Amino acid sequence: MMYRRSTGGRGLVQRTKTFLLACAAFGLLCLVDGTPASAATGEQVDKAVDKAAAWLLAHQGKGNWEIVQTPNQTRSFKNDQELFGGQWTGQTAVVAYTLLTAGVSPNETHLASAIDFLSKTETHGTYALGVRCLLWSALDLNPKLKAVARRDLQYLVASMRAKGDARGLFFYMPPTAADADQYDHSASQFAALGAWSLEREGFEVPQEFWKLTDAAWRAHQYPTGAWSYTFNGPEDAGKQTASMTAAGVATLFITQESLRRGTECRGNPKDANIAHGLEWLGTNFDAVYDPTREAWQNQFWLPPEARPKLETYGLFAISRIGAASGLRQFGNVDWFQRGADYLMKAQAPDGTWKGKVSPIDGTALGALFLCYGRAPIVVNKLQYSLETGGKSAEARWNQRPQDVFNFVSWMGHQLESRFNWQIVNLDGPAETLHDAPILYIAGDQPLNLSQADKDKLRLFVQQGGMIVGNADCDNAAFSSSFTKLGTELFPSYSFRELPPTHPLMSGEQFTSTKWGRKARAMGLSNGVRELMLLPQLDAGRAFQGNNTGTRGEAYQLMDDIALYAVDKIGFGFRQKNPLPQPSATAPAGTPVTLARLQYEGNWDPEPYGWQRLSILLHNQAGIALTVTPVKLGDGTLSQYKLAHLTGTAAFSLSPTQRQELKQFIDAGGTLIVDAAGGSGPFAGSAERELQAIFGDAAAKSLSHPLPVDAPLYSIAGMKIDNVAYRPFARKSVVGNLKQPRIRAIQQGSRTACFYSPDDLSEGLVGQPVDGVIGYTPDVATSIMRNIVAFASAPGQQAK
User: Fold this and answer.
1) Which end of the chain is more exposed for a tag (fewer CB within 10 A), N or C?
2) For position 108, what pLDDT does the model report?
3) Are 720 and 714 in contact (CB under 8 A)?
4) Looking at the whole model, is its pTM more than 0.85?
5) Are 465 and 429 in contact (CB under 8 A)?
6) What CA–CA distance (Å, rounded) separates 490 from 488?
């Protein structure tokens, strides 16, 4: 029996599947702040999940993870035997789902036996049914398992209470005449979660189910914004808890997705209940694992001193909201960072966490929290304001609240991985936008942004990001203002339609010529990569309506855009910031100046690259680099000892410019030349110009690269021995070559010029992107770092 594998999302190279445990977001503010130095890292989170998974696998008994091995249909819950006998199979289902989400293959012996156990064993307990449905949604179901999943869903839907305050809610077991008015919000959240998870996989859930669920949860919210395990009127708010408040907010996200899938342009929808609940969580976040505020309900048959002290159960509900809403923060609380920091400290050496019942459920739910939070963020959706008459007002940026969530969920299914999304704004520095490679701007109004916002968007793109626009309802005013914004940010470039041969349209997962409907896209390029893209269709409408069948080209185009933006190599950990910061402990360094050569052409396609390299040179090589634009031919180049020439198109230097370069070199200067993006036309022009300057010696030197043992590749202990090219370069030019192709022109005993026909300039930015003939960003940066260090070393300049 074969199943699809599911993972916590370590990148595209792990071809595994899960689904996003969440639903649609409403327009709620996400402030992205800095991460403290002591915060849990991606590596620590991965190790914690791996330890937890190993412990769970090692503690399976009799092919399952049940705390008791005998089912029990009693409605009395005086002890573990009665409670977990009534929720028979539930523990196994939650552990199995956790292991799938953590990346364990469903064909692994322990996991396969658990799935087989579940497929053959019925249950009627609400918790168990909810988690079982969640598990089925994460597997590729054969006909036998589909029948089991359908049966579980039917049992679950039929268990909804229909009387009094319990109407629309659930209790531990299906209702009888004696307990028809009993309910529990905890059981109810698992019921809604299970039903929703299978509905997203194509199983049918009646709309009345969601209407009743929605009404019940709204009616039971306290005026404070919180929920408790049961509701006894607005005056009984003393038992409100963070775990049930998180459950309430997460459940309302579910009901909103199922009830309101409108795709029209009617402004940003608001939900006061969700907003109020999030506000309470932002103020009371630490209550989620505070035993003094949650212990009253934990294992109610035990005395307080015997109840567990950690609430991974509450963190599980928190992670559902985070993944659903795209919010990185609740108020000023970074939910994932705060929870991850806590779990790193609380995890036992054997990999376990304490739970509501035992280390089994505590460890499973703690690992789930980390898996949801660590999933790479593919798209950031921008919350923005517009300037009108000197005043700022919120734009209609979120008219389709489920658009990006539905897209990343679909993409995760296609690539058998797990992805997240996030809402960001422009309140912070541009660096805070880099959790994702793509910034998605949607709307149906002209983009009249403030100058400060434009400056941040420009810097975000220069730092390697890409902006993708969506004209809601095909609004022409938005489209024209988006292209205008592009030319304001980057006046040297203009939009044009991407041809079918463009790597984005022909070299990613889907090929544009095979789409049922033609999906066009306008792109603004710097000659190396696409800086801004505007698909010529309302993709947001397709995403919001979850129209994967009838509007598949919208999903496929956006999928290709995302893969293009990361060069098909995968997405990084959500908290990883690729932008380096100057080291406070590094010495001031040796001053070095470098001239960026201006000429009639695209001389500066990637301006941020040298800013980034300057920081790395300070941190790694003890060089204080100053970079200055210098107009070639104006007579000022003699003030510098290093110069860099790059571009993306054919060019020709004037005699005056050639003479100035020759004088610069004769005086001991070193020239660095690379073809940005691996541009063939630029490389051809550069080689002709170098021959004109250096004569016949240049032709010989340019015909073969430096040997791999050249001093350049190991100067000052900075050894480069693992040379990797980008996928596009391997496919189109270099094949399986493992050696660099840097050329060097000697003048006497020193190297006067370093030349690369392959890209170095885009590599300096640090963001991988498809369609570039060159080295991976790390290798390109290391090569240029060594070139600068080599050229600056004593003895490399003429006497």
Assistant:
1) C
2) 96
3) yes
4) yes
5) no
6) 6
